[in-house]
Amino acid sequence: MKTIVYLLVSVLVVSFSPSLSERVSIFDALNKRWIKCVVTANDSFNEGQLSVLIENLHQLKNVVIPSGTRFISESSDEQDFMNVNDELIVLDGKSVEITIDGYCVQKHNSYPTEGNLFTLHKESNEKLVKTAQLMNQKGFSRNIIQSALWSVSDGATFSGIYEKNNEKVEELRAAICALTGREDDWYNTDATYELSETRQIVSEVTKIEGLISYEVKETGSLKMEVCKSDGEVIRTLASSTPVQHLGEYRFNFNLKVQGWERGSYSVRLKINNNVFHEQEFEVG
User: Does domain 211-283 have CATH number 3.40.1000?
Assistant: First the structure.
Protein backbone atom coordinates (compact mmCIF):
# COMPACT_ATOMS: atom_id res chain seq x y z
CA MET A 1 0.00 0.00 0.00
CA LYS A 2 1.33 3.45 -0.88
CA THR A 3 1.99 5.78 2.00
CA ILE A 4 1.04 9.41 1.45
CA VAL A 5 2.27 12.04 3.86
CA TYR A 6 0.33 15.30 4.01
CA LEU A 7 1.55 18.57 5.46
CA LEU A 8 -1.32 19.58 7.71
CA VAL A 9 -2.11 22.80 9.45
CA SER A 10 -4.14 23.50 12.53
CA VAL A 11 -7.87 23.50 11.92
CA LEU A 12 -10.69 24.85 13.96
CA VAL A 13 -14.06 23.10 13.89
CA VAL A 14 -16.57 25.37 15.52
CA SER A 15 -20.09 24.79 16.73
CA PHE A 16 -21.39 28.36 16.44
CA SER A 17 -23.55 29.42 13.49
CA PRO A 18 -22.22 32.28 11.34
CA SER A 19 -24.43 33.96 8.75
CA LEU A 20 -25.54 31.70 5.91
CA SER A 21 -23.65 33.85 3.39
CA GLU A 22 -20.37 32.72 4.95
CA ARG A 23 -21.12 29.03 4.56
CA VAL A 24 -20.21 26.92 1.55
CA SER A 25 -21.78 23.47 1.31
CA ILE A 26 -19.21 20.76 0.79
CA PHE A 27 -21.38 19.43 -2.04
CA ASP A 28 -21.27 22.78 -3.87
CA ALA A 29 -17.52 23.02 -3.29
CA LEU A 30 -17.00 19.53 -4.71
CA ASN A 31 -19.29 20.07 -7.69
CA LYS A 32 -17.50 23.32 -8.58
CA ARG A 33 -14.12 21.68 -8.03
CA TRP A 34 -13.16 24.22 -5.41
CA ILE A 35 -11.90 21.43 -3.17
CA LYS A 36 -10.84 17.81 -3.22
CA CYS A 37 -11.98 15.62 -0.35
CA VAL A 38 -10.81 12.23 0.90
CA VAL A 39 -12.71 10.51 3.72
CA THR A 40 -11.31 7.44 5.50
CA ALA A 41 -12.24 5.34 8.52
CA ASN A 42 -10.24 5.75 11.71
CA ASP A 43 -9.45 2.99 14.17
CA SER A 44 -11.96 4.42 16.64
CA PHE A 45 -15.40 3.34 17.82
CA ASN A 46 -16.58 5.85 20.41
CA GLU A 47 -15.68 9.12 18.66
CA GLY A 48 -13.88 10.60 15.66
CA GLN A 49 -14.71 7.66 13.41
CA LEU A 50 -14.10 9.55 10.16
CA SER A 51 -11.03 11.39 8.94
CA VAL A 52 -11.81 14.15 6.42
CA LEU A 53 -8.95 15.56 4.35
CA ILE A 54 -9.81 18.69 2.34
CA GLU A 55 -7.49 20.07 -0.30
CA ASN A 56 -8.44 23.72 -0.77
CA LEU A 57 -8.17 24.68 -4.46
CA HIS A 58 -10.10 27.96 -4.34
CA GLN A 59 -8.94 29.82 -1.22
CA LEU A 60 -12.22 29.06 0.53
CA LYS A 61 -12.76 30.35 4.05
CA ASN A 62 -14.87 27.38 5.13
CA VAL A 63 -17.05 24.48 4.09
CA VAL A 64 -19.91 22.84 5.94
CA ILE A 65 -20.81 19.16 5.95
CA PRO A 66 -24.59 19.27 6.53
CA SER A 67 -26.32 17.16 9.14
CA GLY A 68 -27.62 13.98 7.49
CA THR A 69 -24.79 13.56 4.98
CA ARG A 70 -24.22 9.94 4.06
CA PHE A 71 -20.70 8.55 3.86
CA ILE A 72 -20.88 5.53 1.55
CA SER A 73 -18.29 2.84 2.17
CA GLU A 74 -16.21 1.62 -0.75
CA SER A 75 -16.71 -1.92 0.62
CA SER A 76 -20.26 -3.18 0.09
CA ASP A 77 -20.07 -5.40 3.17
CA GLU A 78 -18.97 -2.56 5.47
CA GLN A 79 -21.24 0.04 7.03
CA ASP A 80 -22.18 3.42 5.64
CA PHE A 81 -22.00 6.28 8.14
CA MET A 82 -23.98 9.47 8.69
CA ASN A 83 -23.13 12.64 10.58
CA VAL A 84 -25.70 14.18 12.90
CA ASN A 85 -24.13 17.57 13.64
CA ASP A 86 -23.43 20.21 11.02
CA GLU A 87 -19.64 20.28 10.70
CA LEU A 88 -18.43 23.81 9.92
CA ILE A 89 -14.80 23.50 8.89
CA VAL A 90 -12.71 26.64 8.93
CA LEU A 91 -10.19 26.60 6.08
CA ASP A 92 -8.92 30.19 5.85
CA GLY A 93 -7.63 29.44 2.40
CA LYS A 94 -5.64 26.39 3.48
CA SER A 95 -5.88 22.60 3.20
CA VAL A 96 -6.84 20.76 6.38
CA GLU A 97 -7.59 17.38 7.93
CA ILE A 98 -10.11 16.84 10.71
CA THR A 99 -11.92 13.99 12.43
CA ILE A 100 -15.69 13.93 12.82
CA ASP A 101 -18.21 11.63 14.48
CA GLY A 102 -20.13 9.21 12.28
CA TYR A 103 -22.97 6.82 13.06
CA CYS A 104 -23.88 3.55 11.37
CA VAL A 105 -26.92 3.47 9.07
CA GLN A 106 -26.55 -0.17 8.01
CA LYS A 107 -27.10 -2.26 11.10
CA HIS A 108 -26.21 -5.65 9.66
CA ASN A 109 -23.00 -4.76 7.83
CA SER A 110 -19.52 -4.98 9.34
CA TYR A 111 -17.86 -2.03 11.04
CA PRO A 112 -15.42 -0.29 8.66
CA THR A 113 -11.77 -1.25 8.87
CA GLU A 114 -9.15 1.43 9.40
CA GLY A 115 -8.30 3.25 6.17
CA ASN A 116 -11.51 2.22 4.41
CA LEU A 117 -12.53 4.92 1.91
CA PHE A 118 -15.90 6.71 1.81
CA THR A 119 -17.62 8.98 -0.69
CA LEU A 120 -19.99 11.77 0.35
CA HIS A 121 -23.59 11.62 -0.87
CA LYS A 122 -26.78 13.53 -0.25
CA GLU A 123 -29.02 11.04 1.55
CA SER A 124 -32.13 10.11 -0.47
CA ASN A 125 -34.13 8.89 2.55
CA GLU A 126 -35.77 12.13 3.68
CA LYS A 127 -36.98 10.58 6.93
CA LEU A 128 -33.43 9.57 7.83
CA VAL A 129 -32.12 13.06 7.05
CA LYS A 130 -34.87 14.60 9.16
CA THR A 131 -34.02 12.25 12.03
CA ALA A 132 -30.39 13.38 11.92
CA GLN A 133 -31.46 17.02 11.81
CA LEU A 134 -33.70 16.53 14.86
CA MET A 135 -30.51 15.69 16.79
CA ASN A 136 -28.27 18.35 15.24
CA GLN A 137 -26.24 20.10 17.98
CA LYS A 138 -28.63 18.79 20.68
CA GLY A 139 -25.99 16.98 22.72
CA PHE A 140 -27.64 13.53 22.74
CA SER A 141 -25.52 10.58 23.81
CA ARG A 142 -24.03 8.22 21.22
CA ASN A 143 -26.37 5.46 22.36
CA ILE A 144 -29.46 7.61 21.84
CA ILE A 145 -28.25 8.79 18.42
CA GLN A 146 -27.46 5.27 17.22
CA SER A 147 -30.81 3.94 18.44
CA ALA A 148 -32.64 6.80 16.72
CA LEU A 149 -30.89 6.35 13.37
CA TRP A 150 -31.37 2.58 13.32
CA SER A 151 -35.06 2.97 14.12
CA VAL A 152 -35.36 4.71 10.72
CA SER A 153 -32.58 3.19 8.59
CA ASP A 154 -33.20 -0.42 9.65
CA GLY A 155 -36.65 -0.39 11.22
CA ALA A 156 -35.28 -1.17 14.68
CA THR A 157 -37.40 -0.62 17.78
CA PHE A 158 -37.76 2.80 19.41
CA SER A 159 -37.09 1.28 22.84
CA GLY A 160 -33.45 2.40 22.98
CA ILE A 161 -34.39 6.07 22.49
CA TYR A 162 -34.78 6.42 26.22
CA GLU A 163 -33.16 8.20 29.11
CA LYS A 164 -34.93 8.43 32.44
CA ASN A 165 -36.48 11.84 33.21
CA ASN A 166 -35.06 13.39 30.02
CA GLU A 167 -37.79 15.38 28.26
CA LYS A 168 -35.59 16.10 25.23
CA VAL A 169 -35.20 12.37 24.58
CA GLU A 170 -38.95 11.83 25.06
CA GLU A 171 -39.68 14.57 22.52
CA LEU A 172 -37.17 13.08 20.08
CA ARG A 173 -38.76 9.64 20.33
CA ALA A 174 -42.25 11.06 19.81
CA ALA A 175 -41.06 13.07 16.80
CA ILE A 176 -39.46 10.02 15.16
CA CYS A 177 -42.58 7.92 15.74
CA ALA A 178 -44.64 10.63 14.04
CA LEU A 179 -42.10 10.97 11.24
CA THR A 180 -42.10 7.24 10.45
CA GLY A 181 -45.82 6.74 11.05
CA ARG A 182 -45.09 3.79 13.31
CA GLU A 183 -46.64 3.14 16.69
CA ASP A 184 -44.31 3.62 19.65
CA ASP A 185 -43.03 0.56 21.49
CA TRP A 186 -44.59 -0.06 24.90
CA TYR A 187 -41.25 -0.64 26.61
CA ASN A 188 -37.86 1.02 27.16
CA THR A 189 -34.36 -0.44 27.21
CA ASP A 190 -30.98 0.73 28.48
CA ALA A 191 -29.29 -0.12 25.18
CA THR A 192 -25.57 0.53 24.84
CA TYR A 193 -23.47 -0.34 21.81
CA GLU A 194 -20.19 -2.21 21.56
CA LEU A 195 -17.99 -3.56 18.78
CA SER A 196 -17.84 -7.35 18.68
CA GLU A 197 -14.85 -9.49 17.70
CA THR A 198 -16.47 -10.02 14.29
CA ARG A 199 -16.70 -6.22 13.82
CA GLN A 200 -20.45 -6.02 14.30
CA ILE A 201 -22.05 -3.25 16.35
CA VAL A 202 -24.04 -5.11 18.97
CA SER A 203 -26.56 -3.81 21.46
CA GLU A 204 -26.10 -4.67 25.13
CA VAL A 205 -29.40 -4.57 27.05
CA THR A 206 -29.68 -5.34 30.75
CA LYS A 207 -33.32 -4.53 31.46
CA ILE A 208 -36.77 -4.10 29.94
CA GLU A 209 -39.29 -1.76 31.51
CA GLY A 210 -42.65 -0.38 30.51
CA LEU A 211 -46.37 -0.27 31.18
CA ILE A 212 -48.48 -3.39 30.69
CA SER A 213 -52.17 -2.64 30.21
CA TYR A 214 -54.85 -5.29 29.93
CA GLU A 215 -58.54 -6.01 30.44
CA VAL A 216 -59.84 -8.85 32.60
CA LYS A 217 -63.08 -10.41 31.34
CA GLU A 218 -63.21 -13.40 33.65
CA THR A 219 -62.12 -14.02 37.23
CA GLY A 220 -59.76 -16.75 38.28
CA SER A 221 -56.06 -17.44 38.83
CA LEU A 222 -53.63 -15.15 36.97
CA LYS A 223 -50.32 -16.40 35.61
CA MET A 224 -47.62 -14.25 33.97
CA GLU A 225 -44.96 -15.84 31.78
CA VAL A 226 -42.08 -14.66 29.62
CA CYS A 227 -41.78 -16.63 26.38
CA LYS A 228 -39.50 -16.90 23.39
CA SER A 229 -40.87 -16.24 19.91
CA ASP A 230 -41.49 -20.00 19.45
CA GLY A 231 -43.68 -20.08 22.56
CA GLU A 232 -41.15 -21.70 24.91
CA VAL A 233 -41.71 -20.45 28.46
CA ILE A 234 -38.42 -19.29 29.94
CA ARG A 235 -39.66 -17.59 33.08
CA THR A 236 -42.81 -17.58 35.22
CA LEU A 237 -43.20 -14.30 37.11
CA ALA A 238 -46.57 -14.96 38.72
CA SER A 239 -48.17 -18.38 38.99
CA SER A 240 -51.40 -18.19 40.98
CA THR A 241 -52.43 -14.60 41.67
CA PRO A 242 -56.19 -14.44 42.36
CA VAL A 243 -58.21 -12.01 40.22
CA GLN A 244 -61.67 -11.34 41.66
CA HIS A 245 -62.81 -8.26 39.73
CA LEU A 246 -63.37 -7.63 36.04
CA GLY A 247 -62.11 -4.45 34.37
CA GLU A 248 -59.00 -2.72 33.10
CA TYR A 249 -55.65 -3.11 34.85
CA ARG A 250 -52.13 -1.76 34.36
CA PHE A 251 -48.80 -2.11 36.08
CA ASN A 252 -45.16 -1.14 35.59
CA PHE A 253 -43.20 -4.07 34.26
CA ASN A 254 -39.46 -4.49 34.95
CA LEU A 255 -37.34 -7.42 33.85
CA LYS A 256 -33.59 -8.00 33.99
CA VAL A 257 -32.37 -9.52 30.73
CA GLN A 258 -28.59 -9.23 31.01
CA GLY A 259 -26.94 -12.14 29.20
CA TRP A 260 -30.10 -13.16 27.39
CA GLU A 261 -29.92 -14.41 23.82
CA ARG A 262 -30.77 -11.71 21.28
CA GLY A 263 -34.22 -12.09 19.77
CA SER A 264 -37.96 -11.63 20.18
CA TYR A 265 -39.79 -12.36 23.44
CA SER A 266 -43.21 -11.69 24.92
CA VAL A 267 -44.93 -11.20 28.24
CA ARG A 268 -47.96 -13.50 28.32
CA LEU A 269 -50.86 -13.28 30.77
CA LYS A 270 -53.18 -16.20 31.48
CA ILE A 271 -56.31 -16.64 33.54
CA ASN A 272 -57.35 -20.21 34.34
CA ASN A 273 -54.50 -21.21 32.00
CA ASN A 274 -56.01 -19.40 29.00
CA VAL A 275 -53.91 -16.71 27.31
CA PHE A 276 -55.83 -13.41 27.25
CA HIS A 277 -53.09 -10.82 26.79
CA GLU A 278 -49.60 -10.68 25.27
CA GLN A 279 -47.01 -7.91 24.71
CA GLU A 280 -43.86 -8.46 22.68
CA PHE A 281 -40.38 -7.04 23.18
CA GLU A 282 -36.91 -7.32 21.64
CA VAL A 283 -33.57 -8.00 23.30
CA GLY A 284 -30.53 -6.83 21.33
Answer: no
